[in-house]
């Protein structure tokens, strides 16, 4: 029974709306365009481009160093052994071993440096690039102010495009009750 009442109410509401819609009439007509003025805005346009150049710089290539510590260790051991052999008593042998080890280590390091060769310098060229933006201003039409005449009266409207010599109108007639 409740469903019957809902359906009846909906049907009645539809009838009322249809009756009211029947009172208004919509039609289409054309009106002559009296004036068209473009609406212009200045817009900034940013165009990216890549700019590259070459840079030269000096590179020091140091001598090739022997990465091994073996010569220094051997120099220390040999120097310590020689220093120990030179001493006459136990106290002198200890001092001699320490002094010999230090001197042996120093001699071995100096020999490693001398055998490594001179430093090499050379010029390297590298290409560097960056993005630069060229900005320019440009005028763009963003719309039109259109004036048209309809039934002896001038009207103005803004449109997205130029309508030409006439503009289409939707005319709605509705009686005032």
Task: Please describe what this structure looks like.
With 177 residues, the chain is an alpha+beta fold. It has a domain at 63-118. The protein has helices at residues 2-23, 70-86, 90-115; strands at 25-61, 120-150, 153-159, 166-173. A four-stranded antiparallel sheet has the order 3-2-1-4, with helices on one face. It is rod-shaped, with a radius of gyration of 50 Å. It starts with a helix and ends with a strand. Mean pLDDT is 79; it is low at 1-20.
What's the average pLDDT? 79
Write the element-wise H/E pattern from the N-terminal end onward: HEHHEEE
Strand order of the largest sheet: 3-2-1-4
State which percent range the strand residues make up: over 45%
Radius of gyration, CA atoms, in whole angstroms:
50 Å
The helix count comes to 3
Low-confidence stretches: 1-20
Could you tell me how far the N terminus lies from the C terminus, measured between alpha carbons in angstroms? 38 Å
Assign a percent range to the helix content.
Answer: 25-40%
Total beta strand runs: 4
């Amino acid at each position: 029974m409740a469903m019957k009442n809902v359906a009846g109410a909906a049907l009645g509401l539809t009838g009322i709306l249809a009756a009211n819609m029947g009172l208004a009439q919509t039609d289409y007509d054309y009106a002559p365009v009296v004036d068209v003025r473009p609406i212009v805005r200045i817009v900034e346009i940013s165009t990216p481009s890549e700019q590259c150049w070459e840079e030269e710089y000096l590179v020091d290539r140091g001598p090739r160093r022997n990465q091994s510590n073996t010569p220094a260790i051997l120099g220390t051991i040999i120097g310590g052994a020689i220093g120990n052999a030179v001493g006459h008593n136990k106290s002198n042998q200890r001092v001699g071993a320490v002094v010999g080890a230090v001197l042996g280590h120093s001699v071995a390091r100096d020999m490693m440096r001398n055998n490594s060769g001179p430093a090499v310098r050379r010029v390297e060229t590298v290409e560097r690039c960056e993005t630069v933006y060229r900005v320019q201003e440009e005028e763009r039409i963003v719309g039109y102010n259109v004036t048209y005449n309809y039934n002896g009266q001038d009207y103005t409207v803004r449109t997205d495009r130029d309508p030409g010599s006439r503009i289409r109108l939707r005319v709605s007639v509705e009686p005032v009750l």
